Amino acid sequence: MLAWLLGMYSCFWGMMAETAALESSIPSGSGTESSPYCVYTQEQLQWIANAVLETPGLYVELMRDITVDATGDEADWIPIGTSKTPFEGTFDGNYHCISGLRYDASASYAGMFGAIGENGIVQCLQLKDITITGKNQVGGIAGHNKGTIQDCMVFGDIYGVARVGGIVGGNDLNAKVYNCAHVGSVIGTSTNIGGVCGRSNAMIGNCYHLGGVSGSNFGSYGLLIGQTEGVENPLVNCFYQTDDEKTVDIDAVGNISNAYANLGQLGIAFFDGTVAGYLNQKLSESDVHSEWCVQDGNLLLKGFCAKAEAASTTSTEESAVAESTLAVTETSFSTNTTTESTATIVNLTTVGVMIATTMETTITTSGVSFAISETTENTTTISLTTAGVT
């Protein structure tokens, strides 16, 4: 019981710390590997975009799901990193989701990230219900990539002129795109338009695209990559939908005809576990690999499935607790531990704690005595005294 109460105390102060973080426009941390910036809000996320212009090598962690308020001028969103100052740090989404991001401008290098440099890493991030509209080098995660994009999912539509992709617009030599997926439409008015990547000069592995793709000239857009150059095998273990009437005649890679027809799968294969089984096959010992699962009709990275399951479990537990909670407006307890030479007294007070327990008037167990007295109809004061507890 003492451990439980101390756990509640720790949880209380954890919530207080998070509340303080939510109220600040500047994320906590220092942006280093050992002390990354911890992002809780849209305002803090946009602060990161501005900070990267001065310090491109920041370490950032997303601490919770964020819904972006797109009211007003949608072009106010500033992509993280530019063509001149690409993002060179690490952005870890912790398998959280950013929803509602809108960007609509005639600028190039458009996406949540404008450009990712050679040392840049973006991982474990989901973008949902997004719309990105730009000119050239346009993608859901990034407009242009020279670094690493892994374990990322994008649900939404991407529009541009040239080098437009569901995940990334342009993917440079030695860049990495692994374990990623795009669900939605990718539409360009020129060339190099692809479901995952518009133009790629590097291998892309363990990815899928589900939705339509269209460009100006047949052979300049593909369901996975619009165009590729200088890569012996541009796609490894990637998949796309084939039963959409608008996509059945489009190749996986726009400028390589019929080479990857085996990657096409019927739409149902994305929901019955077939494609998940393919993606879960480790390609080699050095393979950068993450597991996939099907949940609620969606093919997701297992990290996102785990987040959804945890949220569902928490919701169920909270509902059960709500049916039998006892509101406690003030809980005070003292712990006295006496040794031969020292005496330590710790006094802790928390306010507004919910106790999901029914207790007798007096309970004594293992030397811990609880005295409970009701003061009002909905208020209970609990005094806890422990003596000689080790």
Please give a quick description of this structure:
The chain has helices at residues 2-23, 42-52, 274-279, 302-323, and strands spanning 37-39, 59-62, 66-67, 90-99, 102-104, 113-116, 121-133, 136-139, 142-145, 148-160, 162-165, 168-171, 176-183, 186-188, 193-194, 197-200, 204-205, 208-210, 213-214, 221-222, 225-228, 235-236, 239-241, 264-265, 292-295, 298-301, 326-338, 343-355, 362-365, 368-374, 380-387.
Notes on the structure:
Helix content is 16%, strand content 41%. It is built from 4 helices and 31 strands. It has a 15-stranded parallel beta sheet that branches. It has a 5-stranded parallel beta sheet with strand order 6-9-12-16-21, with no helix packed on it. α2 links the parallel β1 and β2 (59-62). It is globular, with a radius of gyration of 26 Å.
**Helix count?**
4
CA-based shape:
globular
Q: Mind summarizing the main beta sheet?
A: 15 strands, parallel
Mean pLDDT: 79
Count every beta strand, where a strand is a DSSP E run of 2 or more residues.
31
